[in-house]
Amino acid sequence: MTEAQIIPLRPRHGQHRTTTPIDSAPAPEERDDWEQQLADLLAFLRRRATGDYEVDEFGFDRELTENLFLPPLRPLYQKWFRVETIGIHNVPSEGGALVVANHSGTLPLDALMTALALHDEHPSGRHLRMLGADLVFRLPLIGTLARKAGHTLACNPDAERLLSSGELVGVWPEGFKGIGKPFRDRYKLQRFGRGGFVSAALRTGVPIVPCSIVGAEEIYPMIGDIKPLARLLGFPYFPVTPFFPLFGLLGAVPLPSKWYIEFGEPVSTADYEPGAADDPMLVFNLTDQVRETIQQTLYRLLTQRRNTFLG
User: Pick from 91, 144, 80, 151: which is nearest to 119 by CA?
Assistant: First the structure.
């Protein structure tokens, strides 16, 4: 880029020239930063227009995720929820691993905050490939965006393909039972399904990383469920909170609770014999071990949190 010549403006007859204070002029480093951001944006748009970008077999568009999907989440993460991430070193820097987390909050913001934490806080900037319910991929636009962000259906074949290829995979075994539970049951883990996530980890030999999330339960305190409306819309529940649907879209603004996301010590699966994934007792015991680790960590984090909204 060539530097443009700066020509001073001459005042018109009868006018006095005004000078701009030196302090109000942008610093050279700020100007360079804006120029770099503009150049990056133009390069990004050029690549999108020409098709010069990569998409993997699951539809994951890394560049689109980093430039379009993650940036709007950062104000929520940094300013609104003030997320503190603990134990990020427990997540492997490379290779396959399965992150298993508790689920809550009426809407799955906990999954999005966890994905952002792993990308922004981990030294390797890892992308979390989430396993989602089929409802997510049936929703117009949402399903397409989820695919482009690297997420796929919560099924063992897809999970094992991702883990075997060295991806970091995230699963929320409570499913809708966790995210849609009443506020009175906050931080009480629901059943972890049949342990399918443990089977996937055993077959691929990757570590299981327990993840405990405190703060999401309070963003939309669910005090009721309009079941007839949920059935009509094909949703697992239709939430009633202190502010929604009474205040309409304003009631959909999440409350600014203080969040903690802790990644626990990995549970190794590499030393088990081939065929271990077909042992129902082993799968049950490992599932219960991971669930209990998350539950006890939740209790500990809650005792450390001084105030729900101030931290």
Answer: 91
